[in-house]
Amino acid sequence: MKTLIIDTSSASASAAIFESNQLLGEVTVHTALTHSQKLMPVVDAVLKQTELSINEIDAYAVCEGPGSFTGVRIGLAAVKGFALPSDKPIYTYSSMMLLASGVKAYPHHIIAVIDAKRSDVYYGIYHWEDEKLITIEENVDGFEALIERLNDVKGYEAAILIGDATQNYPEIADQWRGVLADQSLSIPRSGNLNLASILEKNADNAFTAKANYMRKSQAERDR
């Protein structure tokens, strides 16, 4: 089965194609262009790279969020447009899981933290079981409160912290007792996705796939 992965939850636009669990190709760009400008060229580039047409794709996986509200909507809309004509399945995944998937086979817990502004973070806690990334928890919390809580969890001394929040809130990251991931791992890349974990979920379709922003947008909160 050939699966096209799309992520537009951050400033990067990324697309990858897998055949079963084998990565065939990936294109990731990080430019000032909007996702409406760069997503289709990225998808076209990865299709050309793998010498496939969109009709040869059997399933889709797209980031449901959280992250850029506009970016997530654009990614979902694109995948729905691809999947609808042939009623192909759509699988969704969180932006935190995508980051954690890049820390391959880490033997301890992986904690992905994405800046949600106002000193809050979206976070996900994961661990590897064989070749699958298992989700323990995904939510939103104050970064300082999260770090304090996790520091008190026995067995998390070797947990690794990853994500842009470690850069945006360096004073909090300094309090973390575990391991800090290299900043290069904080760039989401669709080719890192642990597809085996995603395909275990029940598939959505073009009518049922939806975003998971975890909280209201800034504009909605300021009303």
CATH architecture of the largest domain: 2-Layer Sandwich
The number of distinct structural domains comes to 2
User: CATH topology of the largest domain, which one?
Assistant: Nucleotidyltransferase, domain 5
* CATH C-level of the largest domain: Alpha Beta
Number of helices: 8
Structural class: alpha/beta
Strand content: 25-35%
Task: Give a quick account of the main beta sheet: strands, pairing sense, barrel closure.
Answer: 5 strands, mixed
Share of residues in helices: 25-40%
Counting copies of identical and different chains, the oligomeric state is: single chain
Shape: globular
- Uncertain residue segments: none
- How would you state the average pLDDT, rounded? 93
- Lateral strand order in the biggest sheet: 3-2-1-4-5
Rg value: 17 Å
Order of helices and strands: EEEHEHEHEEEHEHHEHH
CATH superfamily of the largest domain: ATPase, nucleotide binding domain
- Overall strand count: 10
Tell me the distance between the termini: 46 Å
Model description:
With 223 residues, the protein is of the alpha/beta class. The protein folds into 2 domains: 2-95 and 188-221, ATPase, nucleotide binding domain (Nucleotidyltransferase, domain 5), CATH 3.30.420.40; 96-186, ATPase, nucleotide binding domain (Nucleotidyltransferase, domain 5). 28% of the residues lie in helices and 30% in strands. It is built from 8 helices and 10 strands. It has helices spanning 35-50, 69-83, 95-101, 143-151, 165-168, 170-173, 195-198, 218-221; strands spanning 2-7, 13-19, 22-29, 59-65, 90-94, 110-117, 120-129, 132-142, 160-162, 179-180. The strands form 2 sheets. It has a 5-stranded mixed β-sheet with strand order 3-2-1-4-5. Helix 1 crosses helix 2 (69-83). The longest helix is centred in the N-terminal third of the chain and has 16 residues, at 35-50. The radius of gyration is 17 Å and the shape is globular.
